[in-house]
Amino acid sequence: MALHFLAAVLTLLVAALLRVTSLELACLTLTIAFVLVCELVNTALEILCDIVCCDLEPRIRRVKDVAAGAVLVSAISAVIVGILVLGPRVISGIRWILEV
User: Fold this and answer.
1) Catalytic residue among 39, 46, 57, 99
2) What is the spatial distance between Cα 71 and Cα 89, in angstroms, rounded to a whole number?
3) So what's the pLDDT on residue 44?
4) For the CA atoms of 47, 48, 49, 52, what is the dihedral angle to 10 degrees?
5) d(Cα 17, Cα 2) in Å, to the nearest integer?
6) Domains in the chain and their CATH numbers?
């Protein structure tokens, strides 16, 4: 969770420095919120599973794996959105620096 929060803060800082549009900022913010919500749901499910069953029950393990998979899918989607929104600006900035 701490890693996702750090990535969110850094992404928003880069977005501010690159002066993204309001629509782009909204897309980034919603994507970040989606990842954090998935992470919170995953954490809640893991805590609940640990309360319900202390042993290594295969069905509990499957529930935890599916919840973790949801976090992974949301994080990969967030990276894609970040590349689509910030990528062209970063590449343009790199080209500008190399030309000077």
Assistant:
1) 39
2) 27
3) 97
4) 130
5) 23
6) 2-99 (1.10.287.3610)
* CA–CA separation, 100 and 59 (whole Å): 59
83: amino acid identity, one letter: I
Please list the rounded mean pLDDT of every run of 10 residues in the chain (100 residues): 88 94 96 96 95 87 95 96 94 85
Cα gap 29→16, rounded to integer Å? 12
**Residue 39 falls in the annotated catalytic set:** yes
**DSSP designation for 82:** H
- Position 63: which residue type? V
Distance of CA 48 to the CA centre of its chain: 23
pLDDT value of position 93? 85
Distance CA 46, CA 4 (A): 18
Closest CA to 12 of 37, 41, 34, 32: 32
Distance CA 16, CA 28 (A): 11
